[in-house]
Design a protein that fits this description.
five-stranded antiparallel β-sheet, elongated, 2 domains, six-stranded mixed β-sheet, OB fold (Dihydrolipoamide Acetyltransferase, E2P)
Amino acid sequence: MSNVVLQHIFKRFKDVEALHDVSFSINNGEFFVLLGPTGAGKTTTLRVIAGLERQDEGSLVFDGAVVNDFTPADRDVAFVFQQYSLYPNMLVYDNLAFPLRSPLRKTPKAEIDQRVRDVAEKLRITHLLDRKTARLSGGEMQRVSIGRAIVRRPRIFLMDEPLSNLDAKLREALRVELQHLQKTEHSTTLFVTHDQIEALTMADRIAVLDAGHIVQIGTPDDIYDRPATTFVATLVGTPRINLVPAARENGSLYVRDSAIRLPLGEGVSVPQMFLLGVRPEDVKPSAQGDLRGEVVLTEPLGVETVIHIRSEGQTLLSIVPGITDLAVGDPVQFEISQERLHYFDLDGQRV
């Protein structure tokens, strides 16, 4: 397995700059997630690493060696696509064995059989080996697709939203399995997704990509608890972060168009006008709360309830465990966790 470094990668398609000065490193055995919305440049980054696209500037380094001029075959990467890239008329066994039967590899027949059966067992598809892939469900196809990458033991796995075509329950199950597989195999993996839950639950580290720019790199905790910009703050977290205009005045802060006033934390230095970020779990209905508002909507989700609390012209989302007794129109007292506030300047940069 490999250590992979991207150094100042630029990629342009005619007048569109798809990647702008993209730099990050993936450590040996790390599960690294590239997170961003559609069109951010995630797939382009994967294709550049794989050698399917040539960058206009910058270098790719595998284990200390520059691989800019290496062909895709010489780079020894395995790609798992969103669309299952399988041969429909071949058996599952032959689909899994296909990469090992390449004349370049010269893998002995007994070893091919051993590796195919090992991978099938790990992915729980042994019972499907004699079935044609055209007769598989979406989840089974994606397991075979992942298996075909794993069987090769490449330097790095590149996974392009491999779970996005699956239903929610299957996605959750495969997410857990992929994580377990990666940890037991110690495989170097770059996983691309627009789904923040996948990113937060699976990654050792996350790079957030927006319009071809890397906005922040960090652990899931860094990205969630210390977002570098309002873009990152709104990209992660369900329900979304409360982001409201605020101002500083006489050692306290107040949320504009509301009755919300809070003491400014010790050592906190913010501009006169700024954006205040508050995660919904840090807005807590409480009989002892010194803030007041009115419930304008509740969203019961079973395990938790989202409450929309209006304070004059501003509405904050709050999340509470289980089902709440609060109903639309009820007055509500609440508090905001002072130590968990996020401050951003008006350009959206963390203060």
